[in-house]
Write a structure and sequence with these properties.
Layout lengths: L13 H14 L31
Length: 58
């Protein structure tokens, strides 16, 4: 059995490496002042349980 990796093997393909390099060059022209980030994770602090479970008196 071979150990699994966290990196996709496709990242080593020549065409993917070329596209990634092109993408990095395009990003240099972005005006970061115009970016708007929308958090859609739906994380809510009020979803945390208020009570735990344990044997009586513990």
């Amino acid at each position: 059995m071979e150990k699994k990796t966290l990196v996709a093997s496709e990242q080593k393909r020549e065409d993917v490496v070329e596209q990634r390099n092109e993408w990095k060059q395009i990003q240099e022209d972005f005006d970061i002042e115009k970016f708007v980030f929308i958090d859609k994770t739906w994380t809510k602090t009020n979803m945390t349980p208020l009570y735990g479970r344990a044997l009586h008196g513990k």
